[in-house]
């Protein structure tokens, strides 16, 4: 939720702590307010307290995040912009990202400037549409 400034609430979901920290640092450097989660279940629990402007989520067909939390996230927040990030860029992972409603898909390592531009785009920043 916006706090009256241009800061966006960005929720980051990734099972790798270093990735979460790096993305959170990038979000803070851009003036946003990041909140990090190690898994989709933790994010789903937190959503009862605050709805973010955008969610960055590690898309993993198998593993700790799992498909079920991602599907429940998409069902619960159909109107929240979702940006998928994954170490995998195979057809199955890209298909899953599309099914979950991701508006962008980034392969790790993520280009920080491109990610910030995508966040501007999905959150409706008019400057991103030029």
TrEMBL record:
<protein>
    <submittedName>
        <fullName>Response regulator</fullName>
    </submittedName>
</protein>
<dbReference type="GO" id="GO:0000160">
    <property type="term" value="P:phosphorelay signal transduction system"/>
</dbReference>
<feature type="modified residue" description="4-aspartylphosphate">
    <location>
        <position position="58"/>
    </location>
</feature>
<feature type="domain" description="Response regulatory">
    <location>
        <begin position="9"/>
        <end position="123"/>
    </location>
</feature>
<dbReference type="InterPro" id="IPR011006">
    <property type="entry name" value="CheY-like_superfamily"/>
</dbReference>
<dbReference type="InterPro" id="IPR050595">
    <property type="entry name" value="Bact_response_regulator"/>
</dbReference>
<dbReference type="Pfam" id="PF00072">
    <property type="entry name" value="Response_reg"/>
</dbReference>
<dbReference type="InterPro" id="IPR001789">
    <property type="entry name" value="Sig_transdc_resp-reg_receiver"/>
</dbReference>
<keyword id="KW-0597">Phosphoprotein</keyword>
């Amino acid at each position: 939720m916006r706090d009256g400034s241009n800061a966006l609430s960005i929720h980051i979901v990734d099972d790798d702590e270093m990735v979460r920290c790096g993305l959170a640092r990038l979000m803070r450097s851009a003036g946003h307010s990041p909140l990090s989660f190690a898994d989709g279940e933790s994010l789903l629990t937190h959503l009862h307290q605050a709805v973010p402007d955008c969610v960055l989520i590690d898309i993993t067909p198998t593993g700790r995040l799992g498909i079920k939390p991602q599907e429940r996230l998409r069902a619960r927040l159909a109107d929240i912009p979702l940006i998928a990030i994954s170490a995998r860029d195979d057809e199955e992972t890209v298909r899953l990202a599309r099914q979950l409603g991701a508006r962008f898909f980034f392969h790790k390592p993520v280009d920080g400037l491109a990610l910030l531009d995508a966040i501007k785009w999905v959150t409706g920043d008019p400057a991103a549409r030029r």
